[in-house]
Amino acid sequence: MRTFNLVLKRLMDFFGSLVGVIIISPILLIIAILVKLNSRGPVLFKQERLGKDGKVFKILKFRTMVVNAENIGDGIRVKSELDNRITKIGKVLRKTSLDELPQLINVIKGEMSLVGPRPPVVYHPYNGYANYPEGSKKRFSMRPGITGLAQVAVRNSVTWDERIVVDNEYINKFNVWLDIKIILFTIIQVVNKESVYGNLNIEVSEDELNV
């Protein structure tokens, strides 16, 4: 049954993302133009992340901060939406999670899934896949997701190690119906504009804010 669910999940990921990109292509174009006009730099932010089985890939997001933000001010720490490294259009994109849309391309390519544990940067919370505790590596047994159980359950209100526990719980309980429920809860959170900053000042990279 798990194998059937995994096959169905991949089919839903591929065709759902492909149709989604086609439908929202005008929105993607408008956002790209606004990002380009709002500040100097590339439209997309690309960063190396750890994917399935610890394989490194480049995640795609609309750029929401000034170029070289990680080496300015508070570095990889983003305390709130008042951070002056965040561009004007970037604040809107982060609040609405529209900056995540380019990750549909990652899903089509098979690097990500619509639902799964969020892919961490290669150096945080552990420096490289090999340095993760054995129990924590379980979260990498499935493709990382645009959204996931940790995102709808705890957001950024807990530490990374606590989120890994939730990620492993998702791996254990995975089925397509659970994915559908997580997607629905994610939509509700976006509509309600819940804070993505949580209650803790968690160290994050430029595009880790919406993890």
From TrEMBL:
Coiled coil: none annotated. One of its GO terms (molecular function) is phosphotransferase activity, for other substituted phosphate groups. Keywords: Membrane, Transferase, Transmembrane, Transmembrane helix. It holds the Pfam family Bac_transf. InterPro entries: Bact_transf. Residues 9-191 form the Bacterial sugar transferase domain. The chain crosses the membrane at residues 14-35. Belongs to the bacterial sugar transferase family. This is Sugar transferase.
